[in-house]
Amino acid sequence: MPRVAFGLAVTAALGVAGTAVVAADPQDFSRIERGRYLAEVGDCAPCHTRQPNGAAYGGGRAIETPFGTIVSANITPDRETGIGAWSDDDFVRAVQHGIRSDGSNLFPAMPYPYFARATREDILAIRAYVNTLPAVSNAVKTDQLPFPLSVRTEMVAWNKLYFHPAPVRPDPGKSDEWNRGAYLVEGLMHCGACHTPKNAAGADYDDAKLQGYALQGWFAPNLTDETRRGLGSWSTDDIVAYLKTGHNHFSAAAGPMAEMVANSSSKLTDADLRAVASYLKDQPAPKQEEAKRLAGSEAPMRLGAAIYADECSACHTPSGKGVPNLFPSLAGSAAVQQDDPSSLIRIVLGGMQSVATGAAPTGPEMPLFGWVLDDRQTAAVLTYIRNSWGNAAPAVSADEVGKARHRLAESTD
Asked: Rounded to an integer, what distance in angstroms lies between the CA atom of residue 82 and that of residue 357?
């Protein structure tokens, strides 16, 4: 995705308005290199680069949100069409408070509610790196939301209701590794922008942090330590392997997550990945009833079992355990058992290309079955997979598949 933020300050001590300090050397290599790394942590380039062949950070990428399409800005040092004329304080206000240099408001598709939790020093390191990029002359019309959503002054009210900036403060009762993970996950990595449920205004449900959210026809899964739908069955090493390579025994990154792994998490240090894993493994599971497994005698389960045997078992094996690091296990899979089956439906209908990274250069591909299976058959095989080998999840309906098929067709037109 890229990871896309839908919904969406530092304290006064961090000086958003900026207090008098000694000017940093604009050619300080260590600071620029740190900024480059932090820009990768924040997954900045994918959102600010038009796909597939746009100039890096030159803007123009169309980003789908539940409210319409937003086009990313040019953040290269070009003085006319980029941010070359911005001061450091302008940059900090935009990144951490959602206020552009002209005083107008940004929409929270720019995840400033998360970036507000980072330190000013880290944000200015990113600025130092951005200043070294080639200046790209590319005037971008970012305002493409329909009226009245396009009225930026509405964000003043949104910010008062939902934007409560505060830094990530270290927890003295936790390890340094955990605290580093908290700073990354809650700040620059902005994991909750995709993985936390949103209200009708696009703001996070804070009491359901990291419990999963549907976006762009995919479902960003639960990242809490819940066993059935979260990361409870994953070890720290499993999480690190997934973020580093895009693969582990349980899952393979696809869709927006594949892009995030390729451009961001695969480039992080092992120490930072372990910090992220340490923090995620400590996120409490929500208190919810376990789903009841469907009876195997029901017609959809019988039909699904037959389709699975014919179309799926060769790769994922009859036992559903797959082939480690090649074909993900379906048995016990948290991704398979999410309440929302959006990702599964999309993968079966449209296929998927898993991510290829430097640590795992082969990105396995799953063929599309939308031309083979109709809506009822697709629903049946997914219902079977979600309720076999110890799995338990709600049945998938043919109506859900039909709607997803229509959305997929529209997105590929």
From this structure: 31
72 lies in a domain? Answer: yes
- Residue 93 has which token pair? 């206000």
Give the list of residues 6+ apart from residue 404 with CB closer than 8 angstroms, or none. Answer: 217, 342, 345, 346, 349
DSSP 292: P
Whether 239 and 276 have beta carbons less than 8 Å apart is answered as yes
Burial class (CB in 10 A: 0-12, 13-18, 19+), 152: middle
C-alpha 78: how far from its chain's center?
Answer: 29
Question: How is residue 317 written in tokens?
Answer: 């094996």
Q: Is residue 170 part of a domain?
A: no
Whether 123 is in a domain gets the answer yes
CATH of the domain at 360: 1.10.760.10
110, 143, 162: which is the final residue of a domain?
162
Handedness of CA 173, 175, 176, 177 (dihedral sign): negative
Give the end of a domain, one of 130, 162, 194.
162
Name which of 339, 321, 295, 297 is nearest 389 in CA terms: 321
Q: What is the pLDDT of residues 361-398, one digit of tens each?
A: 878 889 999 999 999 999 999 999 999 999 999 999 99
**319: domain range?**
299-412
Report the b/e string of 254-288 with b at 16+ CB within 10 A.
bbbbbbbbbbbbbbbeeebbbbbbbbbbebebbee
- Given a cut of 70, whether residue 16 has pLDDT beyond it is no
Measure the CA–CA gap between 316 and 328, rounded to whole angstroms: 7
Produce one character per residue of 373-403: b if its CB has 16 or more CB atoms within 10 Å, e if not.
bebebbbbbbbbbbbbeebebbbbbeebbbe
Domain count, the chain: 2
Contact 152/107 with Cβ under 8 angstroms? yes
Question: For residues 45 and 56, is the Cβ–Cβ distance under 8 A?
Answer: yes
Residues 6+ apart with CB under 8 A from 366: 315, 347, 351, 352, 354
Residues contacting residue 284 through CB under 8 Å, at least 6 positions apart:
224, 225
Q: Is residue 398 part of a domain?
A: yes
3-state helix, strand, coil in the chain (%, to 5): 40, 5, 55
Chain center to CA of 95:
18
Model pLDDT for residues 63-80, shown as the tens digit of each residue: 888 778 889 999 999 999
